[in-house]
Amino acid sequence: MHRRQLRFALSVATKADKGALFLKSFLARSFQPLYLIRSSPFGAFRCRMMQFGATIIDTSASKLYTKKVKGTAIERGLAFPVCVSVNDVICNNSPLASDELEPLKAGDIVKIDLGCHIDGYISVAAHTLIVPESAGSAPTVDDEMGNVAVAAYNAMLVAAASIKAGTKNGEVTEVVNRVASSYGVNALASVRMHQMKRFVIDGVKEVALKEPTADDLEAGEEKVDECTFEQAEVYAVDVAMSTGEGRPRTSGSLRTTVFKRNVEANYRLKMKNSRYLLREVDKKFPTLPFTLAHFEDERAARMGVTECLAHGLLTPYPVLHEQKDAYVAHFKCTVLLLPSGTSRVTGLDVPGYFKTDKKPDEETQKLLEELAAIAAKKAKKKAAKKKKKKASS
């Protein structure tokens, strides 16, 4: 590895790993409040979750890298807004406080998705859980839900381990499909894993969860170009699976509120609200995704979106959903391709209440056992280090 690549890899590893700690903190602390807000309007709950996530990330990040570089403070904060998608909704659901939606109830499937960055180095994560009846109680989980949750989580683990320097993206797609087949579920077409670069959340290199069929291609799905992974790269390992057809569709009832600035497009906007929105985006979110809830004047932002979209100034992240009776699970982690190997820096353990009687294929099972042994060794080493530090203090 060249010296320049090594310096970049170390910078990525340090800053992305710090960001990963903030995501773990938020996700771990978001579990218990779920039962408390079952009777709250979902829009209000989403606002609380988004504010909670932003507060944890902003507060934690503000304590690091406080020294200015050439007189400029290092940027840090959310790299992808907190999204809370329920039941058959897959991802990108970040409703506004003014939206009137059904309250959460015990047994609802909740997918939480977000990202953060320090100096443009991004970490992302997503997790799936079930709303419990009360604090400390384990929710009742249907067998099919257990299958799809375990399948999606295990697929994320083996996909993350398979992304290493010299490997091609098609090999990772094969691994994901093998896991889905073993558990009798479907990987979701159009959901992609992406390379992430500094201030770029959707890089050029991609990994498809499954190869598009002829019908998919006819419907507008694009085939992913072949690529080879290299050292000093970072990837979002994004896995979503369902018991349905595996063909996400845009929601007709849930509005799109998450967008990203298209930095290559420019246009002299006519409407006052459109100019307000674009001015705020260029100032606060010049490269990374945002939600309309981030704006003080939410009404003006909503009215300004249409003209900005019409002239290609913004890229939408539409809310995706499966068929109504399908169970959906979504897990995401961040991996760094370092000289020492692939390092997974985000993602929590799958909740213990997700269980299944189904087993993965022999090759996948062997890899999962190897990953479990490595994780156990790291945990033991960490516990010993903590014990030694406590004894010396």
Low-confidence stretches: 1-10, 29-41
Q: What overall geometry do the principal axes of the alpha carbons give?
A: globular
Largest beta sheet, briefly?
A: 6 strands, antiparallel
Mean pLDDT: 84
Structural class: alpha+beta
Rg result:
21 Å
Query: Could you give the count of β-strands?
Result: 15
- The sequence of SSEs as H and E is HHEEEEHHEEEHEEEHEHEEEEH
Helix content: 25-40%
Q: What is the tally of helical segments? A: 8
Strand content: 15-25%
**Distance separating the two termini:** 40 Å
Describe the structure in your own words:
- With 393 residues, the chain is of the alpha+beta class.
- It contains eight helices and 15 strands.
- It has helices at residues 3-30, 42-61, 143-162, 169-183, 214-218, 272-284, 298-310, 362-392, and strands spanning 76-86, 89-91, 109-118, 121-130, 186-187, 192-196, 206-208, 234-242, 249-250, 258-261, 290-291, 314-316, 320-321, 328-338, 341-344.
- Strands 5, 6, 7, 8, 14 and 15 form a six-stranded antiparallel beta sheet that branches. Strands 1-3-4 form a three-stranded antiparallel beta sheet, with helices on one face.
- Residues 1-10 and 29-41 have low confidence and may be disordered.
